[in-house]
Amino acid sequence: xxxxxxLRSGDQKDKDRHFDQIIGxxxxxxAVLEKVELVAPTTATVLIHGETGTGxxxxxxxxxxxxxxxxxxxxxxxxAAIPLDLLESxxxxxxxxxxTGAISQKIGRFELADxxxxxxxxxxxxxxxxxxxxLRVLQEQEFERLGSTxxxxxxxxxxxxxxxxxEHMVKSSEFRGDLYYRLNVFPVLLPSxxxxxxxxxxxxxYFVDLYARQIGKRxxxxxxxxxxxxxxxxxxxxVRELQNLIQRAVILSCDxxxxxxxxxxxxxRVTVTSKSAALKEVDRALILQAxxxxxxxxxxxxxxxxxxxxxxxxxxxxxxxxGISRPTPSRGVKVSxxxxxxxxxxxxx
Length: 349
What we know:
349 residues; Rossmann fold; Helicase, Ruva Protein, domain 3; 2 domains; two-stranded antiparallel sheet
């Protein structure tokens, strides 16, 4: 997951530069960065735990950047993205003719990471038959390429990451216990985005600026209702989900105003009879974001009513109940819901 920029305080410019892709001032994130600063100068293997989209690769890179290996290779391997029959060759390399299709010698990721750091993402997906060879290189810093008897020695610092429960996998014989304990020398648990909601405004601001510059749009306003809705959402996909939805919102933006990119099915649905002012604000935010995303077109397949899964008459009722009306661009006055109702048959609404 890409796209962070440090907002951390402090006068250590070099240290801030090493954390220059990590956003947040929350206590939960600061606790993680304190652990990074403690373990980075050592050679200890680090195992990063966290939900999908929490930024495990960024923390791995931060560990490398603060370590004495900074300036040396930082090599990434996504163990879940490589076919199982090719993973051994990817990690350790192979000689020409080692297997069908091996038409030339290949240098593996461990050799490429020599004197540097190797980041093993989704390490829980490494198949059991390959795990003893990984354990050996972690313990002995040596291995053989496929198709060779020559032993290669390397000096590699390993940082691994997973969203899976490796301890449970060990108990169910899906993962070797000795490898788990060798990887879990220094565990780092990353908080979910919902555990550090106070960082959401800073993340939103950063991503809006990033994508506005990329697309060539100017976003001059992030409505309070939109920010409230973003802070109220549970974010199962964490920062990666937020990043993607902000990109969508920038693309859909009209008149320099950022719409709420959350789909109606992702928001807490609120009835107009709710007695909670906070929940009414979320309901209001949901309707406003749909209206803004549709550029205030109410009817039709692309209109706000369709986005919300409502009948047009139901949406008019909710707008009237919540006091929502559309500004008139020409003179800055508002069009009442009654006026909108009178023209609801028009496809431009």
